[in-house]
Design a protein that fits this description.
Shape of chain B: elongated
Helix content of chain B: 40-55%
Number of helices of chain B: 13
Oligomer: heterodimer
Largest sheet of chain A: 5 strands, parallel
Structural class of chain A: alpha/beta
Number of strands of chain B: 9
Order of helices and strands of chain B: HHEHEHEHEHEHHEEEHEHHHH
Radius of gyration of chain A: 28 Å
CATH architecture of the largest domain in chain B: 3-Layer(aba) Sandwich
CATH topology of the largest domain in chain B: Rossmann fold
Chain lengths: 404, 292
């Protein structure tokens, strides 16, 4: 039965290897964990998953798997913990509450509905609906996100909390990585990282010289190294929503590739064009934003700036104040872009759209002229060309940057 | 190596890790136990200030083992943890005609892992902040951590562990670690404690703290963590520092409560917020709130 679990993990592209799976079996064999589902969950997680990014995916698979295999687990563990859970649950509820629960078809039905509701909410949430806000009128208002159930588990550790641990999906925010198909882009982005240590070997490597001289029986043996500059720092701006939805996958691939390649990488999201605010968390884009002025203040000009977006929008969104599709912008997007290009001389724009169509959209032409024609297609060759541009010294950039 | 296998097969070694001043959650407990039983290194990640380094110290204490700490810097190389050959001293000694020069062993400096491998009983090795080092660093240690042995080329000597040490590795996620390395480790991500765990943590550090001060402080703390856009959210260690200050200054609990107009900016917030942009942001928010 565990082989099936292993297969499912592999299918969801969590990088689990056979060796790790065997380790899990070995661990089960040594009885290092107890026999509860929760213990098994923790043990499996610690042996199989090696990055918190995959915790969320693991939780989901585990949840599905345990649901399917529940009967098997029950056979091993016995009926008691489940019964105990129900019993104490009823004991804790007041008479009134119990009636309400029964009106909904009993505890099982309630839990089932709650689960469905949670899944439903998940879907709607990603669709952008504020479903949570209206939750007050739902039958779960009285019980909230089932705090009772959680409390039972914590008081006496048992099956009750176990289900919650992985169903809560606490690690959702970590899952920002898609490794599949990023290999090619990784190679291209690696070039960007490399130039941190490029250059002529022009510095005396004192330690190496001394030890080489010592090994050389006292004859001086000079060793030189390349000057070691700071690793590349990158600011990434990603376009989300609207016309970019087709390109989200491509963006995500670039994003996941980028994250592992730099020492310092900051990323921000924007919609269509850059205005006075950008944000880091798409779910909270309306209340957790960062002013663009603050970005210009807090990130030095030696940051390499990469925009990712399709630059296809109405020309008003760039040219005129108040042109943004989602909010009233006091100043035109073009002005903001000028400020950004002035502050960050190293800047490129990666466009996931086919370059053949670039000429057709006026907004694309406008964007390109704003950033000094530094727009490249989002492909391996495009990234290579973009990186070449980023590697040029600041003053070698085309001087035709418009002044404010 | 076979005798230490037997050792860990002994059910007595599965005892809980307990400590007077460190709260260890159940899942972390299990991870440590598993790492110990199966003799794999344990990789611990988590927000800064959630007690990653402290874990190794407390594990060593509760298992009554010696702790070997190896703090990694950006210039640290894998061989520094094994041994170093001090060619410079040898050259100097040879020019001064010192007799020591004839024995190369005099110039081999033992590293942390060597010490741990040679210890008479099981020990705990802490490799702290492995992500600070070069990307190749973890790869260079694969064999050494897997087989718990390494070869000293200068003296043609094979150093292998008498008792496989329990290796605890911490990382702050500044660099990705190579897959081959991850595959050999157990992994645990220390989540930021919920308020209940936090209460326990404070209880072990300040057992005599007044209940109402603690409640007020925790509320301020968790509210502060919710402030959007903070560059560095205050973490457990900052909370502990702050409470220490509150206790030292004998600040009463009601000075922290929200209905007190003078407490809009919490007392001594410098212990919680560590950079001026955060403090400015915070003060601005407080100011806006007051206008409402």
């Amino acid at each position: 039965m565990l082989l099936d679990f292993f297969d499912r993990l592999r299918q969801s592209s969590i990088p689990v290897t056979l060796g790790e799976f065997l380790t899990l079996l070995e661990a089960l064999d040594t009885h290092v964990a107890g026999f509860s589902t929760e213990d098994f969950y923790f043990l499996a997680r610690t042996t199989l998953v090696k990055d918190e990014r995959f915790y969320d995916r693991f939780d989901q698979i585990f949840g599905e798997y345990v649901q399917g295999a529940e009967s098997l687990f029950d056979a091993v563990v016995g009926e008691i913990p489940d019964e105990w859970l129900r019993l104490s649950k009823k004991l804790e509820l007041s008479e009134e509450d119990r009636k309400r629960v029964e009106a909904l078809g009993g505890w099982d039905k309630l839990m089932e509905t709650l689960r469905e509701r949670l899944q439903e909410q998940e879907k709607r949430h990603s669709g952008g609906n504020k479903w949570i806000g209206t939750g007050g009128t739902s039958p779960f208002g009285a019980y909230g996100y089932n705090p009772e159930g959680v409390r039972i588990g914590q008081a006496e550790r048992g099956q009750g909390r176990a289900v919650k641990v992985w169903d809560k999906r606490q690690f959702k925010n970590f899952d920002d990585t898609r490794e599949l198909g990023t290999r090619g882009m990784k190679m291209a982005l690696r070039k960007l990282r490399k130039f941190a240590r490029e250059g002529v070997a022009d510095q005396l490597d004192l330690e190496d010289t001394i030890s080489a001289t010592a090994r050389n029986a006292g004859y001086l043996d000079l060793k030189m190294v390349a000057e070691r500059r700071n690793a590349v720092k990158v600011l990434l701006f990603l376009d989300v929503g609207g016309s970019m939805d087709y390109h989200v996958t491509a963006c995500e691939e670039l994003f996941s590739a980028a994250k592992s390649e730099f020492k310092r990488l900051e990323y921000f999201y924007f919609h269509n064009f850059i205005y006075e605010r950008v944000w880091k968390n798409n779910l909270r884009r309306h209340n957790e934003t960062t002013p663009t002025f603050e970005l210009l203040r807090s990130y030095a000009s030696d940051y390499r700036v990469i925009f990712v977006g399709d630059a296809s929008m109405s020309p008003y969104e760039i040219a005129s104040p108040g042109g943004s599709v989602e909010h009233w912008n006091e100043e035109a997007g073009g002005l903001w872009m000028q400020r950004v290009t002035q502050h960050f001389p190293h800047l490129v724009w990666l466009n996931p759209e086919n370059p053949a169509y670039w000429e057709r959209t006026p907004s694309n032409r406008m964007t390109r002229s704003l950033i000094g024609e530094r727009m490249y297609p989002l492909s391996v060759s495009g990234i290579e060309a973009a990186i070449k541009t980023l590697r040029r010294p600041a003053n070698a950039n085309p001087p035709d940057r418009p002044l404010q | 190596m076979s005798n230490d296998k037997n050792q860990s097969g002994n059910p007595g070694t599965f005892q809980a890790i307990e400590s007077e001043n460190y709260v260890i959650t159940e899942d972390l407990q299990l991870a440590v136990r598993a790492a110990r039983a199966l003799q794999r290194p344990l990789l611990v990640k988590g927000e800064p200030g959630t007690g990653k380094t402290q874990l190794a110290i407390e594990v060593a204490r509760s298992l009554d083992c010696q702790l070997h700490q190896w703090h990694i810097k950006s210039t640290t190389k894998a061989r520094h943890g094994l041994y170093e050959y001090d060619a410079v001293s040898r050259l100097r000694d040879s020019q001064l005609g010192n007799d020591k020069v004839h024995d190369i062993n005099n110039y081999i400096i033992h590293g942390t892992l060597w010490d741990a491998f040679e210890s008479d009983k099981q020990s705990v090795v802490l490799i702290d902040e492995i992500d600070k080092a070069d990307i190749e660093f973890p790869n260079d240690l694969l064999q050494e951590l897997d087989r718990m042995e390494f070869y000293v080329h200068e003296t043609q000597q094979l150093i292998s562990a008498r008792y496989r040490p329990l290796v605890i590795i911490t990382s702050n996620n500044e660099k990705e670690l190579p897959d081959a390395f991850l595959r050999r480790c157990f992994f645990h991500y220390i989540q930021f404690p919920d308020s209940e765990t936090m209460q326990k943590i404070i209880d072990v550090h300040y057992p005599d703290l007044k209940k109402n001060l603690l409640d007020a402080a925790l509320k301020v703390f968790f509210d502060l963590r919710e402030v959007p856009g903070l560059k560095k959210k205050p973490s457990t260690s900052e909370l502990l520092d702050w409470i220490k200050l509150l206790v030292a200054e004998e600040i009463p609990a009601d000075a922290l409560q929200a209905d007190n107009p003078r407490s809009l900016i919490p007392k001594l917030h410098g212990a919680l917020l560590k950079n001026e942009q955060d403090i400015h942001l915070f003060e601005r928010l407080v100011f806006l709130n007051r206008q409402k």
